[in-house]
Each structure stands twice: as C-alpha cells, then as structure tokens.
Amino acid sequence: LKFHRPYHESDHVLSVAFNVLCGGRTLDDIELRRRDPVYLDALGVEMIPDPTTAGDFCRRFAAPDVEALMEAINAVRVGVWRRQGPAFLGETARIDADGSIVPTSGECKEGMALSYKGIWGYHPLLVSLANTAEPLFIVNRSGNRPSAEGAAEYLDKAVALCRDAGFLDILLRGDT
C-alpha cells in the first residue's frame, strides 16, 4: 500500500477487508479511513485506494470468479478441518442455510429488485457451518427471488465438503 499507483490487487483486497474489520458497511466508508491519520499510521501507509477505485476493482469480478474464490477457500478449509482431529470431526456437522433481504441505499444497482415485502435490495443466500460460524457459500440474488432458490445445490456442495473432511454425521438446518 505504500508506493503502488496504480495499486496492486492485494492493496485493494486489504483495503476492503480492513474497512470491514473497522466497522465499514459500504465501500463509501473507505473514505473515512482514508482521512484518518491514526488508521493510516496503524497500517504503515500514506494512502489507500479511494471508494471509487475500490468499486472499480470489485466490478472486475464476475460470478464465476467469486465461485472460484469460494472453491479455493473451501479446499483449504477441508484440510484445516481434517487437522482438527477426531474430536472435531466426531461432532455433528450442522449446516445452516439462510436467505435474508438486504436493503440497498442506492438506485439502479445491478441485480437489485423489489422484494415481496416492498424493500429494494438483494436476497443473498448464506450457507455456513454452524459449528464454527464459517460461511461456506454466499450467493448474491436479486431481492425478488424466493428464499429457497438455489439452496439445494449449495447444501449439496456443503455436505460434500463436510464428507470430504471426514465428518460422519451431518445435519441440515435452514431458515430459507
């Protein structure tokens, strides 16, 4: 982050990640971080990408890119679970699925729609391992999609991950 202009990919990823860790809810919150000398000093940088640049970076990625990232993370995750040993794998793997309406503050954002509750936004699907609160799959959907849409496919993938790691007992739970 110190001298790269244009910024490296890692600069963008860290900027977004640190923004979230510091309580940022949108890319616009990065501007607060850019103007905070204590924050910049803690990172050991003179400047970070602005929100517009962060948005441009995020728009480079399509759904297949996000899927590939989730698959790469999950491949590593299986190895970590295996190293936890028999006590961890002997527990029942509790897989949760949840679809929630997430309102948006902008207009004309790609993929957002009016939900059945009259809220403009998205309806992402989150499939997680409840034992550890790890998100296994996050699927962005428009606000007018049914809660269960696409859940079966990702629940099947989550079960396969747990079986691959060595869990013997798997329980599916859902709020979709």
Helices and strands, with pairings:
Blueprint: H1 9-21, H2 30-34, H3 37-43, H4 51-58, H5 63-83, H6 86-89, E1 93-99, E2 102-103, E3 113-114, E4 120-122, E5 125-129, E6 134-139, H7 151-165, E7 170-174
Parallel strand pairs: 1-7
Antiparallel strand pairs: 1-5, 2-4, 3-4, 5-6
Helix pairs in contact: 5-7
Report on this model:
The chain has helices at residues 9-21, 30-34, 37-43, 51-58, 63-83, 86-89, 151-165; strands at 93-99, 102-103, 113-114, 120-122, 125-129, 134-139, 170-174. The model has no long low-confidence stretch (mean pLDDT 89). α5 runs parallel beside α7 (151-165). The strands form two sheets. It has a four-stranded mixed beta sheet with strand order 6-5-1-7, covered by helices on one side. It is an alpha+beta fold and 176 residues long. The chain has seven helices and seven strands.
- Order of H and E elements: HHHHHHEEEEEEHE
CA-CA gap between termini: 40 Å
Mean pLDDT: 89
Helix share bin: 40-55%
Strand order of the largest sheet: 6-5-1-7
Unreliable stretches = none
How large a portion of the residues is in β-strands, by DSSP E?
Answer: 15-25%
Q: Please state the structural category.
A: alpha+beta
* Count of strand segments: 7
Query: Mind telling me the C-alpha Rg?
Result: 19 Å
- Principal-axis shape equals globular
Largest beta-sheet details: 4 strands, mixed
- Count of helix runs: 7
